[in-house]
Amino acid sequence: MARAVTRRRKLAFTLVGWTIGLTLFFPILWAILTSFKSEGEAIASPPSFLFFHWTLENYAEVQARSDYLLYALNSVVISLGSTGLGLLVAIPAAWSMAFAPSKRTKDILMWMLSTKMLPPVGVLVPIYLLFRDFGLLDTRGGLVAVLMLMNLPIIVWMLYTYFKEIPGEILEAARMDGATLAKEIVHVLAPMAVPGIASTVLLNIILAWNEAFWTLNLTASDAAPLSAFIASYSSPEGLFWAKLSAASTLAIAPILVMGWFSQKQLVRGLTFGAVK
Amino acid sequence: MATLHTRTTARFMLSPAVLLLLVWMIVPLGMTLYFSFLRYNLLMPGMEAFAGIENYQFFLTDPAFMDALVNTLLLVGGVLLITVVGGVFLALLIDQPFWGQGIVRLLVISPFFVMPTVSALVWKNMFMHPVNGLFAWVARGFGLAPIDWLASVPLLSIVIIVAWGWLPFATLIILTALQSLDQEQKEAAEMDGAGALSIFAYITLPHLARALTVVVLIETIFLLSVFAEILVTTNGGPGTASTNIPYLIYAQALLQYDIGGASAGGVVAIVLANIVAVFLIRMIGKNLEA
Amino acid sequence: MRRLACALIGATALLAVQQAAAATKLTIATVNNGDMIRMQKLTDDFTARNPGIELDWVTMEENVLRQKVTTDIATKGGQYDIMTIGTYEVPIWAKQGWLVPLDNLGPSYDVDDLLPSIRNGLSLGGKLYAAPFYGESSMTMYREDLFEKAGLTMPEAPSWDFIAEAARKITDKAHEVYGICLRGKAGWGENMAFLTAMSNSFGARWFDMKWQPQFDGKAWKDTLKFYVDLMHDAGPPGASSNGFNENLALFQSGKCGMWIDATVAASFVSDPKESKVADKVGFALAPDRGLGKRANWLWAWSLAIPSGSNKKAAAEKFIAWATSKDYLKLVASKDGWANVPPGTRKSLYDNPAYRKAAAFADMTLKSIQAADPTHPTVDPVPYVGVQFVAIPQFQGIGTAVGQQFSAALAGTTSVDQALKNAQALTEREMKRGGYIK
Fold first, then answer.
1. Which of A253, B170, C12, C78 is buried most, with the most CB atoms less than 10 Å from its CB?
2. Which of C68, C191, C241 would best serve as a mutation to test chain B binding (most B beta carbons within 10 A)?
3. Average pLDDT over every residue of B264-279
């Protein structure tokens, strides 16, 4: 009897869960499907869901017009670079805030977060002038630096909350055993912090990948990432739905796949200290 | 001795982050402040002159300013409402055992990986378009007149687009918190004959308080500067119906090239954002205490 | 920490050096319109003739492109060697000394072959500052089959009253056929391009000779009311978010009876590969009201060299290639005469092969010749430009006014309120700009 109830319950949840899941995913699915249609079919009414003439012509067209790999490579370099550099700065900072907190730690943290409230459009011209003077316009290095700074507050905060959950006594014990600071970090802290760091890295890559203001406005060709790739498809003359869908699919595919494969790691650390 | 040593090391390790952010904040902010007191239009070089508070006056007396302020708050509030309520609901759902749970979870978190410009373009052209969009097709299927989403309910449309992207983020954080909930406590309450609703209200929800605080705080920071979605879909219109503060600054900076005015707008936006932040921290900050 | 900073600066400097060391590489910023994309595909012809020059394309959607090149040229960022700009930017930028005068395009270029109205729009003080890649005006495109069914005949030079009557007659909302599609999406280059040109034919103007905005006058009220009423009765749903592209898609899928827009659209709507109605399209001049001005604008996407570029010689070579007579022949040999970039050269319109392939050639030429950027309105004005006002403030003002008019079309404000708001905001900006006290 009880078993039947759970089964029925499970069935109900399955139904509701899949309905909602598919609904939320539908816009992405629809873009992917549209990318395989011809332009005419893309705006056909009634729309065809699966039974249309599948074609790769949009992808061929997109690739012929702009070298996807070049943009994708820039996106990879910029998001990985800014994440790596960010970690280098953020880990020591978060470590010190977590294990040697002072009265002002909380204030510093809040202040760091508040730097994110600077609206990018308002400071575009100052930054553009600085980039011009330092020769950083259209360089990957410049973008790595900007995106690192953009996301640094979030990284520090995430790591801080994660480090804080590591009991200080373990470090004390290690110190008693005569471990140096370096050893302390490598042998004691690192293994415990890996899940938190992994999830921070993933979140930061996602944020950097999807950043579309600085990456678009500070680049021309050499360092242009996928956000610029998309900007050349957003409303050309003529029918463009299918080509836009193909470009969109290409732009989000790498990060989507990465997200899917690493979602366990992402979820595990995505707590911001919300879990005790 | 050891603590003193640690203290110094700690300061030393904290300093790169603090210094970098300080420079990142102070240099552009300093330049922005400086420009905000200048009559400075990029398209009219050689006309720069000290303007006093004229730029601030100009920005604050803009007839669109109050609309933009209200729209900014509505946008943040609307998205927060949808993502928090929806996030709790989704997290509770995914937390239940059912067939294909893992795949559903992947489907639910996917929107988070989509670039804002892409999602705005997809929603605008393939869903909300009153002739070729899927919503219009569905509406016609039911014999209804299609809604012209971006013209008749522009702000709501943008809220939907933005909320779609942030819902997974809220869901994930709440889900993680939910999974750390002590099952025994719940079971004990069940034994005592507590209903599902009261378990949710008295045990689950208080447990989620911190997670919800985090969601609200982080999302607010990002939502205050939502801009790409508006630019791609409505251009702030019709009229000023979907103009928010960042869009207003954009119009000053990249349509007028009025750097003085845009800088004043930037300073105003920072002040406003900090007011919001102070309120937030007052209201929910205690949840963040360890 | 210091070491980190050093490493950071070192790494970025290294990247910067690497980039500077490249050969003669021209960075070309351009719009993602069909004709430019075709040019991008045909560049092998150029690089084969000029082995020392490499081309690097930055193709962007119009608004993104404009904001990027404007920021770059105004701050002397020097990211681009060739910029694609329009008739709006050229006079303003040339005046600032931001553009290189193009007096060195080679002997075979034949500057005098350029259409005079286009050439005037791109010159300052008799010097050409940008070479036209394609030129356009606006005209009326209509569905011959629908007109026949309704028993109507489109005159070659229609009046607004006829257009309105025909649009209402053709409309069949149950079958998704809308009598007329017009731009409604807010933007100085979107709905305001159309509405400003339309207002010229209604006897309206943006400013009087003292730069006083004129939205409180009767002519503008007539224009806007006529437009809103017409679109309400005979326009497609969601017109307030339709720009050029959206209308093109609607027309190509057979949902519009008429469409008054850029002449370049003619080749898209009559291309059987893209358009369902390719063989049923007719062309006529943009409408008028008997006041001596037609509702047609003038625009030319043109190539220019920013004065900051240090590769002027190579850039001139490229511009001479891309806007030459030979380029037109090259396109014709690859994709047929109907697809060559129109509206720049007299010789193209004298070419029988072109006139045969492009049914719209005659009407395009007449439309371009009918537009006069230096005398755009019935009453005198202090500015240059048909569908725009060539002052730096116009982008911002035009877009803000466009939003008001878009709201009037969407029905969220009344026509009177929209005009009142437009008048107030234009006055405000003109005061700030120092035009009026």
1. B170
2. C241
3. 86
Residue B7 lies in a domain: no
Q: Which fold has domain A66-269?
A: MetI-like fold (1.10.3720)
On the CB side of A16, CA atoms within 13 Å amount to: 16
- Domains of chain C (ranges plus CATH)? 2-136+299-357 (3.40.190.10), 138-296+391-432 (3.40.190.10)
A218 to chain C: nearest residue by CA? C68
Is residue B10 in some structural domain? Answer: no
Our count of domains for chain B comes to 1
CATH code of the domain in which B234 resides: 1.10.3720.10
Parallel/antiparallel/unpaired status of strands C178-181 and C256-262: parallel
Which ipTM was obtained for this model?
Answer: 0.87
* Structure confidence at residue A67 as a pLDDT band (50, 70, 90): confident
Question: Searching chain A, which residue's CA lies closest to the CA of residue C248?
Answer: A238
For residue C159, the 8-state DSSP code is B
Which domain covers residue B240, as residue numbers?
23-288
**Would you list the domain boundaries of chain A?**
2-59, 66-269
Query: What part of C 178-197 touches B (C-beta under 8 Å)?
Result: 185-187
Nearest-angstrom CA–CA distance, C133 and C321: 10
| pLDDT band per the 50, 70, 90 thresholds, residue A5 | low
Distance separating the N- and C-terminal Cα atoms of chain B:
27
Whether this model's pTM surpasses 0.95:
no
Residue B290 pLDDT greater than 50, yes or no: no
CA separation (Å) from B250 to B68, C111, C164, C374, C389? Answer: 12, 39, 37, 31, 21
Q: What mean pLDDT, rounded, does chain A reach?
A: 84
